[in-house]
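Onboarding guide, step 5: your first structure request.
Type a short instruction followed by the sequence, for example:

Predict the 3D structure of this protein.
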Amino acid sequence: MIAGYCQCGYIKDALCLYERMHQEGRKPDHVIFVCLLSAIERPEALEQGKQVHAQIIKSGFQSDASVGNALVTMYSKCDNIEDACNIFESIPERNVVSWTAMIAGYTQNGYGDEALNVMCQMLLAGIKPNDITIASVLSACANLQVLEWGKQVHAFIIKTGHDFDLFVRNSQITMYADCGSIEDARLVFDEMHQRDVVSWNVIIAGYAQHGQDENVWKLFFRMQRIGMKADEFTLACLLSACACPSDLGKGKQVHAHIITAGIALDVSLANTLATMYAQCGSIHDAGLVFHEMPQRDVVSWNAMIAGYAQNGYGKQVLMIFHEMQCAGKKPDAFTFGSVIQACGNLEALEEGKQVHAHIIKTEFELHVFVGSVLIAMYNKCRSIDNARQVFDKMCKQDVITWTTMIAGYNENGHGEEALKLLCQMLQAGLKANQFTYTNVLKARAGLAAMEHGKRVHACIIKSGFEEDLYVENALITLYARCGSICSAWEVFDRMIERDTISWTAMIAGYAQHGFASRSLELYEQMQRAGLKADHVTFTVVLSACSHVGLVDEGRHYFNSMNHNHGIEPKMEHYACMVDILGRAGKLDEAWEFINKMPFQPGALVWQTFLGACRIYDNIDGAKHTAEHLLELEPHDSSTYVLMSNIYAAAGRWDDVAKVRKMMKDKGVKKDPGCSWIEVRDKVHAFVVGDRSHPKTEKIYAKLESLIKQIVEVGYVPNTNIVLHDVEEEQKKHSLSHHSEKLAISFGLISTPPGKPIRIIKNLRVCGDCHSAMKFISKIVEREIVVRDANCFHHFKNGLCSCRDYW
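The system replies with structure tokens like these:
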């Protein structure tokens, strides 16, 4: 009776019956204890297992080999490998079952290397392994992914004659597939004289695991042709191979086969079916499967929650999560991961905080996966302090956690913190991966901190990621944005493999630096190399044409987008064409182009046209354009500033006063012009007339000396660009203290002779500063690189790379 209860899983009833037997004075034998122990298979039942163990000791059966073997198996299945090992060591005479139980225990608990150790000890002890032993050892090789060990076990199998056993052969296929050698797995399968459904399932699962979907379906059809019936596992493998919208048709065929074959949808198969529909983008069908399920476990709810999250239905994720809680189902790490991801995508900070509170209650906050997703959610919601709090509270942080936190600092404009965190990560002994370095390089590019960027590059080389495609692409962008187009080209030139992003980054770099002809040359090379241009590529190609006034070339590339490449131009491409035409003085054609756009012009298009009106003093066109812009973006200061400048240049001071009053009434503030320069790893910022720097006296003395020197060689202050109704001398004084001039002066007194000076300005460089920098570059014999809001200017020997067209 006890054995019957155990076989049916009624362990409590079996224990009660054993207790009654004990009270009645009947002595149990070793068979009863083995039955009781075999029914205890889960960590939750460990206490019951320990009770049985106590009874075994009381009854004096602790030395019995079969009972000892059963105890090893019980403790292993309950995730208590230490006690399993102690029992194994205490068995006086170990047989093949004892050794096999210990090997299987280590394998099941993830100690593959210990399992292989025990196998070696077993062979040294002269015990011959059986089929189950060999299968357990193969499983250990698979878990460790040690292909060479697996091949040695394969040789042992052939030598000892186990290669005809079906169970062993199936285990070999699984081992080879898990170790990444699907070709060896197929060789074993093809050599088999006899195959069962498990043989077909493991090779099909192997191909699915390696993404070889074509072979998955070929084997399934072959399996059907020879009359081998697919079971639930086969169908689950087929459904797992359907993971994108293009596979939806195949997924539906499998679903139809399940129905026509009369296969009952148990919870596991139904979960796989719902997951397939969700991954293939058919969330409606996933919902139908989910709602028809008679029973649901946490995996069922996770499948739907993840499906809604992956398909962009963030609000539905929160709704179904609420339903799950109402149904009394306990969420796990994957549930929280999907829900938090949805909150991040919705930028729903308050909802995210509520879910976070629930995570704290259920003690999942310190889980590495959940912690990383929480950090990512707070990053997307621009709550970097909350993200850092989660990061700091985590007991364990892996490379993903560190990378997520670094990415958060980068995305939220804290590049310095991103770099500091990388240093802390390396000091903690963790190895950064390509994604970590990519995020740090993005932060560096944003700061234009060349020296820091070079240090990160050195770390990349040391870590062996220099030839990683993502890292190389980020390095190109870093150097281009930091003003070193030569360094960007060096990275690009030595790349073994290039993708569209690589070419686009390099084309964009040359365009930003005013080398438009080189940009267009690279684009043509990219076409010849067989790489497909995308929307971003065409944006930078058109920008290149705009920077140097290539009107006909711009028209050609714009028209080729749809006609030759099947790419529908977006708002940014139309804005580029308006810029090309407007900057070339073709304002009427640009206006006509805007009116023929297939959609309503956005703010970007109108801002571009307004800039062109300012260049050519077209007051009527500017006024009309400003009306559109103020309707679309009434609080954007740039429109008011441009209109004020246009009126000031025309001497219409009353209109300037009206614009400024309008700004004041609407609470619109102008962004002050600011210039940054990096010296000895520190970024120094300057605004017009700035006297806050510790070296102010030396900066102004040097600047005064520079102005005198460049005046002597032909520099004439351009007072026409001073947009205030003041005296001429005041205008000259105002011009001499612009932020970019102060930054250059500081650079000259703080860096060794001959070293290039690199500056960033948040606005367009003014005409007078542009003229002054050409003269300064000549007299100090240095290259001056200025990155303004539009492009890079390389001043060298009295000339600028933009050829005065900016």
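Each response can be followed by summary notes, for example: The beta strands are 674-679, 682-687, 757-761, 784-787, 792-796, 799-800.
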